[in-house]
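thread: overnight batch results

M.L. [08:02]
morning all. the overnight job finished for the chain we discussed friday. pasting input first so we're all looking at the same thing
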Amino acid sequence: MNNLLGRTVRVRLFAPDDAARSVALCEDTIVAGSQRAFTIPLGLPLALTHVRVVVEGVGELFAGYGDDLDIRPNDTLMLA
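M.L. [08:03]
and the structure it wrote out:
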């Protein structure tokens, strides 16, 4: 994930069916201008092929293994 936004953002990953977003699978903060790779924690079902990526103050989308995301300067989140 590339943070091109110009400010630090909080990123959380959720199971795709967790509509209530109750428990994040993992979370981190990405400072402006940096990159961060996320890994899915061990112990999750092997059928989990995608996660819901939520970037605080920007938006959310579904991403899968190997997808690269950009947090763009216009406050959008897109697959790169």
